[in-house]
Structure to design on (227 residues):
C-alpha cells in the first residue's frame, strides 16, 4: 500500500476544504431561511423560516466549535483541554434523536492533541452509522499512558468508509488523498505525533476505534516524515 506524501500546504488546504464542506450546508440553509423570511408575508411561513434559521445557526455553531478543537489550535502551544469541553462539543454535534453518546471518561485536563485524536475518532464513529446508533467513548490511563477508545454499535449495519483504515496508517491505495479522506489521514498523523497508534477493529455488527501508545518512538518520526 503506497504511503501518502502530503506537504504542509496541501494538508492545510485539504483541512480547510473539509471544514468548508461541513459548514456550507447549515450556512446555506440560513441564507435560504432569510430569503424566505424576506419574501413571505404569511405568518405561518415566516414562523417556519425563523425555525429553519435558528436550527441551522445552531448546527453551524456546533460544527465550528467542534472543528475548532478537532482541527484547530484551540489554545496556545502545549495547551491542555478540559475533556468536559470535548464531551460537550461532541454531544452538541453528534447526539440527536437517532444517535446516543455514552461518555465513560473522567473529567480531566488532557493534552490538546490527544483531545483532537479523540474528537476525530468520534467523527469517524458517527460517519459509520449514518442511520443512527450508539457511540461509547472512553479515556483510560494518565497523561503519559493515555488510551482512547470509541465503540460503535447500531441496529443497522455499521460501515466504515472505504480506505479509512489505511488512511489512519498514512497510506492510500492510489498514494494520493482528497478532502473526503483528509480527516482520517489527519487523525493518524496527530496520533503518530503523540507516539500513539490508532486503528479500527470489527465489522458490520460493530466497530472499536482505539488509540494507544506505540511500542516505540517510531510513530513520531513517521509523523514528521509524512508531514
Amino acid at each position: 500500500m503506497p504511503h501518502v506524501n502530503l506537504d504542509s500546504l496541501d494538508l492545510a488546504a485539504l483541512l480547510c476544504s473539509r471544514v468548508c464542506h461541513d459548514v456550507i450546508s447549515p450556512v446555506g440553509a440560513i441564507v435560504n431561511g432569510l430569503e424566505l423570511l424576506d419574501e413571505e408575508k404569511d405568518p405561518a411561513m415566516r414562523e417556519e423560516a425563523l425555525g429553519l434559521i435558528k436550527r441551522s445557526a445552531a448546527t453551524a455553531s456546533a460544527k465550528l466549535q467542534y472543528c475548532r478543537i478537532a482541527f484547530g489550535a484551540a489554545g496556545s502551544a502545549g495547551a491542555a483541554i478540559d475533556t468536559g469541553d470535548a464531551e460537550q462539543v461532541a454531544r452538541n454535534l453528534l447526539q440527536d434523536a437517532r444517535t446516543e453518546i455514552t461518555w465513560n471518561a473522567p473529567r480531566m485536563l488532557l493534552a490538546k492533541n490527544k483531545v483532537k485524536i479523540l474528537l476525530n475518532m468520534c467523527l469517524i464513529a458517527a460517519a459509520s452509522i449514518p442511520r443512527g446508533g450508539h457511540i461509547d467513548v472512553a479515556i483510560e490511563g494518565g497523561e503519559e499512558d493515555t488510551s482512547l477508545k470509541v465503540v460503535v454499535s447500531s441496529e443497522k449495519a455499521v460501515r466504515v468508509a472505504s480506505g479509512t483504515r489505511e488512511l489512519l496508517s498514512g497510506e492510500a491505495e492510489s498514494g494520493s488523498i482528497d478532502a473526503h479522506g483528509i480527516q482520517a489521514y489527519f487523525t493518524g498523523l496527530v496520533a503518530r505525533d503523540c507516539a500513539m497508534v490508532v486503528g479500527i477493529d470489527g465489522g458490520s455488527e460493530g466497530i472499536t476505534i482505539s488509540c494507544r501508545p506505540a511500542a516505540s518512538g517510531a510513530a513520531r518520526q513517521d509523523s514528521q516524515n509524512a508531514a
